[in-house]
Design goal:
The chain is an alpha/beta fold and 144 residues long. It contains 3 helices and 8 strands. The chain is globular and about 50 Å long.
Length: 144
């Protein structure tokens, strides 16, 4: 039986920009390592892998919630030309519940982060899509 959501991993080219984005949402750097070698290559299914792996943890979050960032040194990461297209097959977006969505949106916009749409009400919550690092979509949700 599943106990809880643990983490999501995002491959990035600009580690500092990604850390800053998730930092605005309350994630703090917890660990940084380089993953490489045959064991990691077999586990990840990526021959010759060498990547910076940064674990960000939600400050004060209970249970623990992580965003893990990977910046490949080898091989070159593959661009997804459809990353922003939410009608594509596969991973769509991640959503974080927040206590004050208007304040979060204002904070993100003040730091130059773009929204994908306007705030809306849907299924007993306020929602908004945010343009995240590398074109990923991050959703914020406030239940009422």
């Amino acid at each position: 039986m599943i106990e809880r959501f643990d983490h999501v991993t995002v491959v990035v080219r600009d580690m500092d920009k990604a850390k800053a984005f998730f930092g605005l949402l309350g994630f703090k750097e917890d660990k940084t390592v380089v993953i490489s070698g045959p064991v990691m290559a077999a586990y990840m299914g990526v021959d010759g892998i060498e990547a910076e792996h940064v674990t960000l943890a939600l400050a004060g979050g209970t249970p623990r919630l992580e965003v893990q960032l990977l910046r490949y040194r080898h091989p070159d990461p593959l661009a997804d030309p459809n990353i922003e297209r939410l009608e594509k097959i596969g991973f769509n977006h991640i959503c974080f519940a927040v206590d004050d969505i208007e304040a979060e949106v204002a904070k993100l916009r003040a730091h130059g982060i773009a929204m994908r749409n306007e705030l809306m009400d849907f299924h007993s919550r306020k929602l908004i899509f945010v343009k995240g690092p590398e074109g990923i979509t991050v959703e914020l949700s406030q239940w009422h």
